[in-house]
Design goal:
By secondary structure, the protein is mainly α. It has two domains: about 60 residues, no CATH class; about 30 residues. Helices cover about 50% and strands about 0% of the residues. It is built from three helices and no strands. The protein starts with a helix and ends with a helix. The model has no long low-confidence stretch (mean pLDDT about 75).
């Protein structure tokens, strides 16, 4: 599909994650260029049962509007909600 460079970059990010170095990936492109397929393939590899330990935590979000500066908005919302839930659990 001509996505060798992108696939290799994502696999490098996954390798870093497996070494214990957290990763955030932002994938941007026109509709129909294969972003969803690229991520689906990486996700399948990432969440395969590891030889040791647990699979990584996979968080995935989508930004519907490219004109806004909100590439990390989905992550921000997840972290905000999670931290609020954690604070509620630890204070009760």
């Amino acid at each position: 599909m001509g996505r060798e460079k992108e696939t290799e970059t994502l696999r490098e990010c996954l390798a870093e994650l497996q070494r214990g170095r957290g990763q955030i990936v932002t994938l941007i492109g026109e509709a129909g260029v294969g972003k969803s397929r690229l991520i689906a393939e990486l996700k399948q590899t990432a969440l395969a049962p590891p030889e040791e330990g647990l699979p990584p935590l996979w968080l995935e979000g989508r930004c519907l509007e490219l004109s806004c500066e909100c590439q990390l908005l989905a992550l921000h919302r997840y972290v905000s909600r999670s931290s609020s839930a954690f604070r509620r659990k630890t204070t009760t």
